[in-house]
Amino acid sequence: MTKKIQIAVLGSSKSICSKKAYQMAEKVGEELAKKSCTVVTGGGKGVMEAALKGAKKAGGLTVGILPWETTNLVNKYADVVIATGIGWSRNSINLNTSDGAIIVEGGAGTLNEITYGYILNKPLVALTPSGGIAEYVADKYLDKRKTQKIIGAKTPEDAVKKILKLAREHKKKKHSLSKLDQELMDLEKGASQYITKKRKK
Q1: Which residue among 37, 180, 192, 197 has its CA within the 20 to 30 Å range from the CA of 125?
Q2: How high is the pLDDT of residue 177?
Q3: Rounded-to-integer distance, Cα 55 and Cα 43, Å
């Protein structure tokens, strides 16, 4: 059985979400579900709600990863609810869980998610016409390392097409572990070897 591709939709919370961004996020969710993707968001309102709403409309599976300790504060379109209880540090879980992400509008919180995804070398597509942070980061690298260019898209359909292409290419790469994951594995391996040697003495 092949694992479904999991795509995060990152974007504005209810307080700053424009009507245009909401509509675009809903269409993104719908298009992802049509392509049999699992749609992952932070589980709140605004873009998060819209993306899951669109996915549900197309019969897709939806996941809400919450910053709170309770599952009660999730939007009504999440099938799977994960209450992390770690506040906005849950942004890292959104990206760790996903094979790539689509950015719709967004503010400072979204930027935090984007930078985390960039460090992990995750495929990122920004829906440029939605405005906000998405417009600002589209077709750019975030620093001089140029590890992962954030690809701009003009329509929800275009964004989904691009993120799926990038996610599939990313999965085929031999080095699927992030640098951080590899370093942690190396440390764990070193510690294990040290303990084994100590026991033999």
Answers
A1: 180
A2: 59
A3: 13
Residue 127: both structure tokens together: 């829906």
SS3 call for 188 = helix
Reading phi first (left if > 0) and then psi (alpha if -120 to 50, else beta), residue 28 is in alpha
Query: How far apart are the C-alpha atoms of 152 and 140, rounded to whole Å?
Result: 9
Q: Which residues make beta-bridge pairs with 66?
A: 83
pLDDT tens across 173-183, in order? Answer: 755 556 667 77
Look at residue 1 and tell me whether its pLDDT is greater than 70. Answer: no
Is the CB of residue 30 less than 8 Å from the CB of residue 117?
A: no
CA 76/CA 135 separation, integer angstroms: 28
Q: Are 114 and 135 in contact (CB under 8 A)?
A: no
DSSP secondary structure of 44-68? SSTHHHHHHHHHHHTT--EEEEESS
Contact criterion met (CB below 8 Å) for 80 and 97: no
Do residues 45 and 75 make contact, with C-beta atoms less than 8 angstroms apart?
yes
Residue among 58, 180, 158, 142 at smallest CA distance from 104: 158
* Domains along the sequence of the chain with CATH: 6-176 (3.40.50.450)
